[in-house]
Specification:
about 5% strand; two-stranded antiparallel sheet; 2 strands; mainly alpha
Length: about 130
């Protein structure tokens, strides 16, 4: 099986050598797309019996997956999706999915911008 690196690692590696190999990036993105296409139909199915043992722990993990991009990055994500939707280059299905993602990201972005940052206590104001 071919090993794939996250695109940022590929980019850093390639740029550090002074070479930008677009074909390598496209090849890796195609591989990611193929893997996601294979995974998608299984996401609503129960976890197979043979995988349950590998997903069972005796103590709670110290880290859980969390999506917390910086506000400026979140803004760029929303701008990119808006640009992509306005370009009208997506299929109807992909346009619907991108639109749903943009709606979710904008809602999340708005919630994070409006989230409290300080807490008033009897001892004064605390940073959250």
């Amino acid at each position: 099986m071919q090993r794939i690196l996250p695109s940022w690692q590929i980019t850093v590696s390639v740029l550090s050598k002074g070479l930008l190999n677009v074909m390598t990036l496209l090849k890796n993105w195609r591989y990611v797309r193929a893997c996601l296409a294979l995974l998608q139909p299984t996401l609503t199915e129960p976890v197979p019996q043979h995988l349950q043992a590998s997903l069972t722990v005796e103590t709670l993990p110290t880290r859980t997956p969390l999506f917390e991009p910086e506000p400026d990055q979140m803004g760029r994500y929303c701008q990119l999706l808006t640009h992509l939707l306005m370009s009208k280059t997506l299929s109807d299905e992909m346009e619907r999915v991108a639109g749903d993602l943009l709606q979710d990201l904008v809602g999340y972005f708005a919630d994070t911008l409006k989230a409290p940052r300080w807490l008033k206590t009897e001892d004064g104001v605390m940073v959250l």
